[in-house]
Design a protein that fits this description.
Strand content: 35-45%
Structural class: alpha+beta
Distance between the termini: 17 Å
Order of helices and strands: HEEEEEEEEEEEH
Largest sheet: 6 strands, antiparallel
Radius of gyration: 25 Å
Helix content: 10-25%
Low-confidence stretches: 1-20, 230-243
Shape: globular
Mean pLDDT: 87
């Protein structure tokens, strides 16, 4: 006959095992760009020179052959390159599950401005405006246009319009953002990497993009069933003790 203390220990182990199996959910597809642009959308403003490319570790960008550090990890990464002015957006939609307890975004990025420094025109992401050369990263509403900088379309600007301050080619900077208070469960958003250039060569490189959503420690069905049987057994044992 199983004693109540033994049953309690068994239930505790089962619960620990069931809860331990909970794991964060990856909301981004192909964040390392090892499968080209699968899962991603590339949009270039009309009249743009260049675009986003998948590049390897040869040390040079694929169009203008500017120096680059290559992938942050793996064999490939995404990078903008051009021979003239342009505006380029790389984005992916992601759905936040209901009941999430935390959402974290991480990625590695460099911004090589081969001109003298960032220039931010009020027109935003538009290379046909006045001098305008910078990159930015945003969380967008699902319905926002690719090049929109309207406040109503931007859930959060994560990296303000700018460039890396180091000597080109820059190494990657790792970024980490807690999106928990910015996004809502049951809602679709877009993650946008964007740059505009009309001064000189500009290379925005991105790798290792990840959005992890934690839904908390939820026991598996088998654990719930075992828990139910355990409580039933404890109740039965209690009734027998009273008899």
């Amino acid at each position: 006959m199983i004693k109540k203390s033994q049953l309690a220990i068994a239930l505790g182990l089962a619960l620990a095992s069931g809860f331990a199996n909970a794991a964060p959910i990856q909301l981004i597809t192909n964040g390392g760009f090892e499968s080209a642009f699968v899962g991603w959308a590339v949009t270039d403003l009309a009249g743009s020179s260049g675009t986003w490319f998948i590049d390897d570790a040869d040390g040079f960008t694929p169009s203008s052959a500017q120096a680059t550090v290559g992938p942050a990890s793996g064999s490939f990464y995404a990078v903008t390159d051009q021979g003239g002015p342009g505006t380029h957006v790389l984005e992916q939609s992601f759905f936040v599950p209901v009941g999430v307890t935390s959402v974290f975004l991480s990625f590695d990025m460099f911004m090589n401005d081969w001109d003298s420094g960032p220039i931010v025109d009020p027109a935003g992401l538009d290379h046909t405006a006045g001098p305008n050369q910078h990159a930015r990263i945003d969380i967008m509403s699902a319905s926002a246009g690719a090049f929109s900088t309207a406040p109503v379309d931007i859930v959060a600007n994560l990296v303000a319009p700018g460039v890396d301050a180091g000597v080109d080619p820059n190494v990657y900077t790792p970024y980490l953002f807690n999106l928990t208070g910015l996004v809502a469960g049951g809602t679709t958003y877009k993650l946008r990497f964007a740059e505009v250039d009309n001064q000189f060569f500009f290379n925005q490189g991105v790798d290792n993009v990840s959005i992890l959503a934690d839904t908390g420690q939820v026991p598996e069905p088998a654990t719930l069933a075992l828990l139910g049987f355990g409580f039933a057994g404890m109740a039965f044992s209690k009734r027998r003790a009273k008899a």
